[in-house]
Amino acid sequence: MDLQQDLVAIAFLVGYYLAFAIPIALLSAFLPEAKREPIRKSYHIFASLSIIIILRFFSTWYSALISVLLIMVTALVLVVILEKFKAAPITKVKRYSKKSEIPFQIGYICIVLIVLLTLFWGILGDEFKFIAAIGVVAWGFGDATSALVGKSIGRNQLKQKIFDGKKTQEGTIAGTLAASAGVFAVLLFFNPLAIPGQIVLAIFAGITSAVVEASSRKGIDTLTVPLFVCAGATPVYLLLNYLEGLF
Fold it and tell me: Burial level of 26, CB count in 10 A (0-12/13-18/19+)?
C-alpha cells in the first residue's frame, strides 16, 4: 500500500465527482421536472467512468474500496440532508415509490463496488481488474442510452414476460450499441486482448447489459447489470485469451 499514491487518488476521485456532480445538480435545479431525465442519466455515465480512476490510481484494491465507500457514505449523508431541507431537486427523483431513488442507487453502487473490487482485483488479481470496469461502464452507458432513446423515440415495446413492460426495442438496441462502445473503449485502455478479441468481448458485454437492463425492474439494474456482465465476461475473456495463445 502506497499512502502517498492513495491520497493523490482520493483527491483526484473527489475532484472528479465534484467537477460533474455540482454543475449537474445546479443545472437540474433550473429545469422543469419533465426535462430532468437527461440530467439524471448523465450521473450514471459520469459515475460509471469513475471506475477507471479507481482502478488506475489506487495502489491496492482494499485502499480503493475503503476510500470509495467513505466517499459514497459521505454522499449518502449529504443527499439525505439536502432532501430533508428541500435543497436540491435532483435528490427528489421518486419514480418507484414515495421515497427518493438516489439513496437506493448509492446503496446499489456500494454493493457493486464491494463485490467487483474484492473479486476481480483483490482475489483474482491485477490481470482481471479490467473486468470490473467492463461491468460498471456497460451499466452506465447502456442504461442511460436505452432510457433516453426509449423515452424519446421508442415505439415498440418488448412484450416478452421476462422484460419490463416499459422497455422498448429501440431503447434496447441503442443501449446495446452504447454499452458495446463504452466497453470497447475500456478494453482499448486496459488492452487485455488483441483487437478482434476486444470487439467480441465488447459486443458480448453490450448484449448482456441490454438484456439484463431490460429485464430489471424498479432501478435494480444498477446492481444487476454490472454483476451479470462481469459474471458473463469472465469466462468469455478466458476463452478468448486461450484462443489467442493457440494462434
Answer: exposed
CA proximity to 15, closest of 56, 64, 53: 53
Q: Each residue of 141-173: pLDDT tens digit?
A: 999 999 889 888 878 887 777 776 678 889 999
Q: What's the rounded Cα separation, in Å, for the pair 151 and 103?
A: 24
Per-residue model confidence (pLDDT) at position 177 = 97
Closest residue by Cα to residue 23 from 39, 44, 37: 39
CA 186 vs. chain centroid, Å, equals 12
Count structural domains, the chain.
1
Lowest average pLDDT, out of 68-82, 170-184, 202-216, goes to 68-82
Write down the residue that cell numbers 454522499 correspond to: 75
Among 39, 6, 65, 56, residue whose Cα is nearest residue 186: 56
Domain that holds residue 118: 3-246
SS3 168: strand
d(CA 168, CA 191): 33
The C-alpha cell 432513446 sits at: 149
Question: CB count, 10 Å around CB of 56?
Answer: 14
Place of cell 437540474: 28
Distance CA 134, CA 142 (A): 11
pTM (two decimals): 0.89
Find the largest Cα–Cα distance for the chain.
Answer: 62
Alpha carbons 207 and 184: distance in angstroms, whole number:
13
